[in-house]
Task: inverse folding
């Protein structure tokens, strides 16, 4: 089924409502799981998660019920990550950059200016880089599903006081980044002043000028209504990030093999659809955000890459991730250091 952005936004609320209704309808399910995610209910990721949960309920004949809690209802990403580790919630769509707090290798695909296209991203994430990250996640006691979901290439937005077109424009720029060392390091290397703030608090931080700008994929800028408090967007494509569907090990181990297979198959199939959704959305989002008052520019990435080389960014993270993991990444991106 081909879904337009309009279609996605129009079905989000009903889809989540249907999932909640489904919970009441199958109250006697053998396995009743909660899944937390930070994206709004109108975001494609949330919509496809709900779709996967409904497929699991149908294919398991009601034996498994998964309720999707969108928009950080169960807490910010770090809090949800702690809950899924402890078993307070069974499943989470974990942003790869937030997950890197616990699993440093989760940040490997988000190295600044590494991937130049989605062809490179999916070859790596469905190949050796994805395998490397999944193995690292598994060692922490969490259970990752095979397919990583898309969060998109990240762009930089700023308030009406500053448009960003060069490395010099980032000097002293107060920018919100996720709670992760990688992006803090990246923007520090470019001369900015990064602050780690939870996504659920981002709009308020921009509105009250605690920070001047932020960086996120365009889908997050749109569904989070960040265009209301940001004037400019620099299409920097400075890194790619995704979402891993992770489960509490005890909860996943409690499932019979047939039900575990149903869950894995349904969520991996939905991941492929969500990837296509975001590509389709990105094609129209720049025009839509322009209509909402944002001004776009496209900086030359070469100058940013050169600044990071000079700052020792790539050398630092090569040491952090190790030679084998770095070699796995460079197999798809070409030489970075």
Result:
């Amino acid at each position: 089924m081909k879904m337009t952005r309009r279609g996605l936004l129009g079905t989000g609320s009903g889809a989540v409502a249907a999932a909640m209704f489904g919970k009441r309808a199958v109250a006697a399910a053998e396995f009743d799981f909660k899944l937390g995610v930070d994206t709004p209910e109108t975001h494609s990721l949330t919509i496809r998660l709900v779709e996967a949960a409904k497929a699991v309920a149908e294919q398991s004949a009601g034996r498994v019920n998964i309720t999707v809690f969108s928009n950080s209802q169960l807490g910010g990403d770090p809090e949800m990550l702690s809950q899924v580790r402890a078993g307070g919630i069974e499943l989470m769509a974990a942003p790869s950059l937030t997950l890197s707090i616990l699993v440093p290798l989760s940040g490997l695909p988000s190295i600044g200016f590494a991937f130049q296209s989605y062809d490179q991203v999916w070859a790596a994430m469905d190949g050796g880089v994805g395998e490397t990250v999944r193995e690292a996640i598994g060692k922490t006691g969490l259970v990752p599903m095979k397919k990583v979901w898309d969060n998109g290439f990240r762009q930089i937005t700023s308030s009406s006081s500053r448009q960003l077109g060069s490395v010099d424009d980032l000097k002293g720029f107060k920018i919100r980044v996720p709670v992760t060392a990688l992006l803090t390091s990246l923007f520090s290397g470019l001369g900015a002043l990064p602050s780690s703030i939870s996504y659920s608090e981002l709009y308020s931080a921009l509105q009250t000028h605690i920070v001047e700008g932020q960086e996120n994929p365009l889908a997050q800028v749109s569904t989070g209504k960040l265009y209301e408090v940001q004037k400019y967007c620099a299409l920097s494509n400075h890194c790619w990030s995704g979402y891993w569907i992770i489960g509490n090990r005890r909860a996943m181990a409690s499932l019979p093999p047939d039900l575990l297979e149903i869950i894995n198959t349904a969520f991996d199939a939905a991941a492929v659809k969500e990837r296509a959704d975001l590509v389709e959305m990105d094609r129209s989002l720049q025009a839509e955000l322009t209509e909402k008052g944002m001004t776009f520019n496209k900086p030359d990435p070469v100058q940013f890459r050169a600044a990071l080389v000079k700052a020792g960014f790539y050398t630092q993270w090569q040491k952090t991730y190790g030679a084998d993991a770095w070699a796995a990444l460079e197999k798809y991106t070409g030489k970075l250091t």
